Amino acid sequence: MKTFLLALLGLLTIAYIIIWSMIARRMRRATQMEHPATDDPRPSLLMLGIGFLTNFLDTLGIGSFAVTTSIYKLFHLVPDELIPGTLNVGHAIPTIAEALIYIAIIGVDMRTLFLMIGASVLGAWLGAGVVARMSRRMIQIGMGFALLVAALLMLLTQLKALHLGGNTLDLGGVSLLIGVVGNFMLGALMTLGIGLYAPCMILVSLLGMNPTAAFPIMMGSCAFLMPVGGVRFIKLKGYSIRAAIGLAIGGVPGVLLAAYIVKSLPLGAVRWLVICVVIYAALMMLRSARTERARKARAAAAPVMDSLQ
Question: In the beta sheet, which residues pair with residue 168?
Fold first, then answer.
């Protein structure tokens, strides 16, 4: 079963790269016909560096979505409404690399793994279609609160306020049902830009599983759901191609370095820094939503004012 899952991941990777390349090439040709001065889709060194750093931290268990969002907001690299799609499209291939590593080396019940991965994929497929059509302001509000939740989960983990976990490597009965439903919801939320790692680890720990079992579950879930959700974002043009390519190309070396060379770091100080950065990004996202609301109000009032003059 494990060999089958790893082979399926390999096939999914190939299919995803082919589909992404075909759609991107077709859309770029159409865009160039309308706008010949379209920017080169090749990522900048900064975008490649972001891919490397965020996926390096992701492999060590910190997560990549919140950190990437924070950097994008700081440097104004990606429009807010395109951030969820960019995260799901760009981080997909590095996350698959992580899943291949952790599924191979960590034992977990395959039925539990299959069902929870399948639930997250279904959630992502449904969620991506909704998020890709959401307004800029709704995405800003959603991501702002999602980032605050992510920061809270990181803080509780850092303070060891949650005493969770058991010894089992599988789920059954009601616990399995709760795990499947929970991962479905996390898969849908992930398309909005909230990372799955911390919530998934808390979920499986609450259900009595060994926290180590969370690694193949959460990375396997992301590895399958991100290409599925990513394709929907690609088709709907709901992402930044330059930034996404930067995440994909820069991310794989970061994963390999973290998994095979570094393996572990004194992450306490790093996590505190990440928590601060995520809170900053959340507040900036909510501030942007407020500014967007004011801008729309001014735009709506302008025709009225003109008619009175």
Answer: 209
Token pair for 70: 């924070």
d(CA 240, CA 300): 29
- Contact criterion met (CB below 8 Å) for 93 and 21: no
Dihedral sign (CA 150, 154, 155, 160): positive
**Tens digit of pLDDT at every position of the chain (309 positions):** 778 888 888 899 999 999 999 998 888 777 665 554 455 678 999 999 999 999 998 888 777 888 898 899 889 899 988 988 899 899 999 999 988 888 888 777 888 888 888 888 888 777 776 766 666 677 778 777 877 877 787 777 777 766 555 677 778 888 889 889 888 888 887 776 666 777 777 788 778 887 777 778 888 888 888 888 888 889 888 899 999 999 999 999 999 998 888 766 665 666 677 677 677 777 777 777 777 666 666 655 555 445 545
Which amino acid does the sequence have at 195?
G
Query: What whole-number distance in Å separates Cα of residue 82 and Cα of residue 93?
Result: 18
Domain boundaries, the chain: 2-17+42-291
Residues 6+ apart with CB under 8 A from 209: 165, 166, 168, 169, 170, 171
The beta strands (E) that lie in 249-295 are given as none
- What string of DSSP letters covers 178-236? HHHHHHHHHHHHHTTT--SHHHHHHHHHHTTB-GGGHHHHHHHHHHHHHHHHHHHHHHT
- List, in sequence order, every residue forming a beta bridge with 209; answer none if it has no partner: 168
Written as one letter, the residue type at 177 is L
- Token pair for 61: 């268990």
User: pTM, whole model, 2 decimals?
Assistant: 0.76
Coil, strand or helix: which one is 168? strand
For residue 266 the two structure tokens come to 């004194």
Estimate the crossing angle of helix 136-158 against helix 197-206, to 10 degrees. Answer: 50
What are the two backbone dihedrals, phi and then psi, of residue 133, each rounded to the nearest 5 degrees?
A: -105, 0
